[in-house]
């Protein structure tokens, strides 16, 4: 199913933590307006109707939400950061195949490709998984390590559809209801 501009605005504004967790979300009107054309044709696929398994066991706290960039090459936060200590077990949010497992710049990264072709990337994650290995939803795939902007205090999780980042909260059931804002 194709995402409408109105529905996409929900994704691009930012995402809160799951209900009851107490986090806020961030975003800017400018990034929403300028990103609508860039992302208008993204098809979120059938996995969007499903709710994925959170990649960390136990209580969770999203410490930074998705922030869409104003353009493909602009600054933004192309995923969510989930509070986690070094050594925490990381599980696969969805069933799929290991697309990549290795080091990118200064951090260990693992990417799972779902049956619908979505790419779920998590870092910093140390894993013995090999590209091409099948993984079940909820299966342990590694542990939180160090490196990147999380610096051993969180797990960063990003989701790409056809090379474009979308809010991971679409798949965790945490996209907020639309709120109409007055025009300026």
Note down, in words, how this protein is organized.
The chain has 184 residues and is of the alpha+beta class. It has one domain: Distorted Sandwich (Glucose Permease (Domain IIA)), CATH 2.70.70. Helices cover 13% and strands 28% of the residues. The strands form 2 sheets. Strands 1, 2, 4, 5, 6, 8, 10 and 11 form an 8-stranded antiparallel β-sheet that branches. Strand 10 and strand 11 form a beta hairpin. The chain is globular.
What is the CATH superfamily?
Glucose Permease (Domain IIA)
Strand content: 25-35%
In CATH terms, what is the architecture? Answer: Distorted Sandwich
Order of helices and strands: HHEEEEEEEEEEEH
Mean pLDDT: 76
Low-confidence stretches: 1-49
How many individual β-strands? Answer: 11
> Which descriptor suits the 3D outline?
globular
What is the CATH C-level name?
Mainly Beta
Proportion of residues in helical segments: 10-25%
Number of helices: 3
CATH topology: the name is Glucose Permease (Domain IIA)
- Category from helices, strands and their pairing: alpha+beta
């Amino acid at each position: 199913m194709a995402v409408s501009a109105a529905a996409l605005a929900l994704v691009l504004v930012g995402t809160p933590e799951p209900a009851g967790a107490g986090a806020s979300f961030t975003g800017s009107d400018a990034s929403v307006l300028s990103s609508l054309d860039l992302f208008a044709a993204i098809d979120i696929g059938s996995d969007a109707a499903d709710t994925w398994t959170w990649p960390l066991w136990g209580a969770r706290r999203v410490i930074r939400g998705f922030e869409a960039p104003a353009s493909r090459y602009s600054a933004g936060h192309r995923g969510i950061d989930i509070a986690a200590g070094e050594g925490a077990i990381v599980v696969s949010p969805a069933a799929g195949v290991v697309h990549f497992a290795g080091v990118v710049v200064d951090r260990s990264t693992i990417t799972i490709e779902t049956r619908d072709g979505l790419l779920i990337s998590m870092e910093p994650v140390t894993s013995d998984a090999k590209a091409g290995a099948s993984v079940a939803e909820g299966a342990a795939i590694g542990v939180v390590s160090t490196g990147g902007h999380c610096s051993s205090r969180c797990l960063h999780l990003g989701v790409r559809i056809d090379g474009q980042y979308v809010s991971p909260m679409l798949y965790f059931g945490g996209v907020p209801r639309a709120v109409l804002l007055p025009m300026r």
